[in-house]
Amino acid sequence: MRIQSSYSTALVCSVTLHAVLLALIIVGWTPEHKKTQVQPRYIKATLLQMEPSKAPTIKKPTTTRTTNSDQQKKRAAEKKKAEAKKREERKQRKAKKQRAEKKQREERAIKERANQEKIRKQKLADAKKQAEAKKQAEARKLAEAKKQAAEKARQKELELAFADALDDEEQFISAGQNEQLVGSYSDYIVERIANNWSRPSSARRGMEVVLSIQMVPTGQVVSVTVVKSSGNDAFDRSAEQAVYKVDRFDKIQELSRAQPRVFESTFRRFRLLFRPDDLRL
Amino acid sequence: MTEQLSLWALVVGATLPVQMVMLILFGASVVSWVMIVQRGLFIRQTRNDLSAFEDTFWSGVDLNELFREGNARIKKDNAIDGVESLFRAGFREFNRLSQSGSTEPEVVIEGVERAMRVALSREEEKLNTHLPFLASVASVSPYIGLFGTVWGIMHSFRGLANVQQATLATVAPGISEALIATAMGLFAAIPAVLAYNRYSANADVLYNSYETFADEFSSILHRRLHSN
Question: Burial level of A107, CB count in 10 A (0-12/13-18/19+)?
């Protein structure tokens, strides 16, 4: 019977212990360590006026052996004490008043000083402003002079540029006509490269590499260099290899024969933006 | 992910094997604590009984009276164990043998000793109950916890294989959850180890004092036989 009772108490103990533990875990109790903020030590400094310490010097009544006069003397001493206290109180009051007055005076003095300083500062500031205004005026003059000079130069340049532009215009017109031609040929180049490209496993959508391709009029690729890497070496290399695989763009030869000027201006050396799923010039 | 993972969330979110491990460990911990408390109470009780009985025994009380008193207690449904059961076994055997007529002292003493040896081994059994369980919890539960941890870590690394970019944040919760299993294993094991060591030492001490009492009692009976 004793053993049975000890079992039941043991069971109760154990179950409560574990229940408490579980409850703590479920509630989400974790041993927190409090953060103690260390406050910087600072010393608060205030200006104190030194007070002349007028410590009351109480003379102890000297006790003499004559017992009769003792009480009288005591009384007299007490009176004296009281009077002395009163006097001291008066003195203290006076001293307080004086101190207060002193303070007021000092404050006034400080205020006056502050005012004077303000006025001085204002004067100084005014002077500075005037100086600055002068400087600015001078600067403006200089700037205007410069501007005029620049305008003259610009007009000259414009005249020169106009002459150039006239020359260029003719070329531009012919280029506009050639745009379609260039477009069709660039599509052709893109297609050839795309057909020869093998996708590396690490290629991801959104990667792009800029290649600089150099050709000779026969359409033969002379050199390919990576101008702007995609950040993935394998991808860069695959793009480069695709161009090398094409080796020779046959149609470019026809173009260079028919219109050598267009070839020179667009396909002699050009940049190719290479993107998976979307290859374009 | 600034929200800190609570322990409970980790336990709930663990994979099934890890949860099973945790459940086993929790159960082991509960049972081992039952044993620990029960053993503690039992050993304290036994020690008190021992000192009380030795006091009355050596106070010069009549052995017959002591035996009768024990009889009364048994009638009141109070089981007697500890030293007193040793005494009762020895004394009963002594009385029976001496009343049966064979007055050979050696035979009587031999019978008494045999009876007391049986009682002693029964007492030893009582002292050592549950201690093997505590020992096995102490030695096995860290391994079970470790198994849970290994499984959890395995799982979280397997999950890592499918992820393109492996960051610490993808494995950390899994590992944390797995480590809870080890923590629980240790939680179950440490008290069990302590309790096992303590209680087995106590049981040894008690057993030794029982043995000495048995020797002393048989020598007393021996003296009595020879004086008669």
Answer: exposed
Is B29 at the interface with chain A, CB within 8 A? yes
Overall domain count for chain A: 1
Determine the Cα–Cα distance for residues B39 and B7; give it in Å rounded to an integer: 32
Domain containing residue A247: CATH number: 3.30.1150.10
* A253 within a domain of the structure (yes/no): yes
CB B112 within 8 A of CB B93: yes
Q: Which domain holds residue A256?
A: 180-274
pLDDT at residue B20, as a whole number: 92
Nearest CA in chain A to B37: A10
Instruction: Tell me the chain B residues in contact with residue A23 when contact means C-beta distances shorter than 8 Å.
Output: none
CA angle at residue A261 from A256 to A266, to 5 degrees? Answer: 80
Give strand ranges (E) for A28-176: none
Tell me how far apart the alpha carbons of residues B107 and B58 are, in angstroms, rounded to a whole number: 26
Q: What is the pLDDT of residues B9-22, one digit of tens each?
A: 778 888 898 999 99
Q: In the structure, what pLDDT confidence band is assigned to residue A281 with cuts at 50, 70 and 90?
A: very low
Contacts of B6 in chain A (CB under 8 A): 28, 30
Long-range CB contacts for residues A90-95, cutoff 8 Å, separation at least 24: A91/A54, A92/A54, A95/A54
pLDDT in tens, B40-61: 999 999 999 999 999 999 998 8
pLDDT by residue (tens digit) across A111-150? 888 899 889 889 898 888 999 999 999 999 999 999 999 9
What crossing angle do the helices spanning B168-227 and B131-161 adopt, rounded to 10°?
A: 170
Pairwise CA distance, residues A50 & A57, whole Å: 20
